[in-house]
Amino acid sequence: MISIPVTLQSDENGYFDRECPNENCLYQFKIKLKDWEDKVSDEEVHCPMCGHVDTSDKWWTQDQLEQIQKIASNYAMNYIQAELDKSFRRLERSTRSNKFFKITYKPGKRVSFINNPIGQMPEWEQEITCEKCGTTYSVIGSAYFCPCCGYNSASSSFSESLDTIQKMLDSVDQMKTLFSEKYDYDKAETMCRSMIEGSLGDCVSAFQKFAERRYIEITGKNARVNDFQIIEKGSNLFRSAVGYGYEKWLSEYELGMLKLYFQRRHLFEHNNGMVDEQYLSKTGETNYSVGQRLIIRKNEVEEVLKILKKLGDGILSISPIQEA
Ligand SMILES: [Zn+2]
Ligand SMILES: [Zn+2]
């Protein structure tokens, strides 16, 4: 067996490319080479996107595999040539005194072995440092897990989700133009309305997930994600744990807005936006009557986003409860 000395070299930012071995995923990311060598264990590497766990020898990118193959074949050629050299020289020496035949061997041009630094892709956007283990990695778009320890950061997933929703809302007008070219104006209108209604649902889901994670981190107690679907209920949970609820960070108006829009989202989710008795009694809304359909506008969802961001920052500032 020939072992080939391949030296790993990072790009100029210190990163090393990796690719998830899960065939359904193949997500590519970068990790600081130093962290890869010092922190990441041989037994467990986590895919930042799908959470797949595998041993550290499985994460080569297709590009790296190609280069390694080239390096290996050059190395093997070089090795064989060197072996041939040796045996021909021996043969040459042993036949030197033979007057009937003589082998001379002129060493040919060697295949030179250059240990290319593994190629790197151009600059990536998001640099993330794990809050738990300090590993630094870089991804395009979003990521959910630290490649080293598998930690899923509640706060970065939350702010990432809110940012995605905001960008989606920003592009609604462009989408409308696009849709009306492809379909017709009515269809485009319906599709965009559905996007806006959906984005309210996305806001609530992102917040619920975040609040549940933070509640567990802070109290060490379990919570159900649905507990944070109702504003009063979630606020009460935090109040009984740390002595204050959402009112610590939000004005009465802002709290009222969240209560109303969380209820509205519930109606979209479960009743296709059709107003019923239960909704009216829970919200005290007088602008609608039973059987009407709720209207949600882009600027309303944007306001919900702003309030959730504020509430999220507040919940993030609570320190975990120390056991007495
Ligand atoms: Zn993956
Ligand atoms: Zn980590």
Keywords for this entry:
9 helices; elongated; binds zinc ion; single chain; 2 domains; 324 residues
Report the total helices. Answer: 9
Query: What share of the residues lie within helices?
Result: 40-55%
Number of domains: 2
Q: Nearest-angstrom radius of gyration?
A: 31 Å
Secondary-structure element sequence? EEHEEHEEHHHHHHH
Please give the order of strands in the largest beta sheet: 1-2-6-5
Main β sheet profile? 4 strands, antiparallel
Number of strands: 6
Distance between the termini: 60 Å
Global structural class? alpha+beta
Bound molecules: zinc ion
**Beta-strand percentage?**
5-15%
* Low-confidence blocks of residues: 113-119
Apparent shape: elongated
